[in-house]
Amino acid sequence: MAISAIATGIAACVLTWEASARYLFKIPSIWQDDVAVFLLVGATFLSAAWVQARRGHVGIQALAAILPPHIDRVRLAIADFLTLLFVTFFAWKSWELLLEAIDEGRVTYSAWGAPMWVPFTCMSVGMSLVALQLLLQIFGVASRWHEQ
Amino acid sequence: MSTLQIGLAYAGATFAVMFTGIPIAFALGLVATSFMIVYMPWASLDTVVDNVYTEMSNIILLTIPLFILKGAAIGKSAAGRDLYGAMHAWLHRIPGGLGVAVVFACGLFAAMAGSSAATCSAIGNSAIPEMRARGYSGGFAAGLVAAGGTLGILLPPSITMILYAIAAEQSLGRLFLAGVVPGMLLVALFAAYSMYRYRYEHRAAAAIHAAGGLRSDILQEDSFTLADRLRALPRIAPFVILLLGVMLALYGGFATPAETAGLGGVLALLLIAAIYGAWHWSDMKPIFQSTLMEATMIMMIIGMSLLYSYVMSYLHISQSAAEWVVAQHLSRWLLLSAVLLLVIVLGFFLPPVSIILMTAPIILPPLRVAGFDLIWFGVIMTIVMEMGLIHPPVGLNLYVIKGVAPDIPLGEIVWRVLPFVGLMAFAVLLLCIFPEISTALPTWIYASR
Asked: What is the ipTM of this complex?
């Protein structure tokens, strides 16, 4: 969370610098857009697991109010399992893409040509953490069932 | 399978998966990748992550976390209370001035923060207890703030409009300007209704008092001296200057939208540090926490929605659906009504962000063919989605208000918010009859540049 917060703060500063540097000191902007994009994409993926831990990713909860509690628990378990399925797939593909980007030395299309492994690392690590968080949440629910 | 069948299966699968309660972002991703596995070449699966990254790295999209940061900085400070207090000091002579002050404060706050939920909680925290202490009914106070909060997505810098501008390939600057006058129209309508409602509640209270009952606080008159009013100004002036400065940077051509957003975030943080002494990490922490909570949730939905619409377009679902709508040869207004009905129904379940990204590829081409101005339609669509923010079952603002004033029953809030839904529908009707309400300002500003 802290890393993402700092990244968001820095991104705001970078863009402020971009605008002021161009107007006040006539310095052309070369690296600022790439850096801001990396920081903000990084912030999004690296805080995704933290948001998931607080169940902050909104979903349609209309059924929660209608279903009886014991069936609703099954619904929640199915939802968590399906989420885990997708997130694991996405994390796996992110790692593949990351290795490929390192292999081929992929860079951005801008004049600055920033290395693409930077945002891809954030995506891979971030989505793996979401998968881990989901596993913890699923185990948490399962162990509570067991106790009852 | 025909495109029609695949399309129906896609829509059906989406709703089925979403209703299990999976987070919207992951539900969209799951449906999209499942259809890729079944209907698209195997190799396309390798492009999933790259696609999401490419779409998310759009620099205009990245203004969203920064505008949220700016809103959170102002929202977590005492600026909401000060703004509303100052409005009340200046407007108290008007009958029902307290309600009018709340509407104006919501409008101004929305223009600074760009988020409905932030506006609702910031203004609601101080205004709802105050209105109730002054004898207004809790339901009306809550309904007023819930409705006032929706202005957040109509007045610039609105996150919903940023997405619409990208989806419809329209100028963000023009779209922002097109929302300004309709936003003021809604402020005026809400203020007028709140004066009417005050008279109603005032008369009822006076009748009870005259019959020997309790004297309600609503009958009490306020008084502020000129000195009181002037003292209220310095605290809100910096925020109004921030608002004007950001607008000037954007429309004066000094900065790109992304730079404006970054500048707004930095300035907002500096302002609250200077005015409220909030510069410790303990002050900053809640600001960044709420920023990340909202921004990450929205950016994930955006990234996955774009994957979702990529699959829809690869499988020709969106094109076929759009062609089918065009082939119906509906009259202009019937087409518009059908599209708005769809938006309203989706608004029962989905937040504005997902509605725009999921429906834009299908509804915008027919509207363009029918000769509608897409900037004007963006404003109409935004107002219709605003209604979705205050009607159940999703009605995001209702739940924010419920969090601010837990003792007001949800049923009463819903009931009292309905007149405002009616006023919004009336505003949509006015905009259809007089499209100039929205289009005149951007046309005039861009012509004079």
From this structure: 0.87
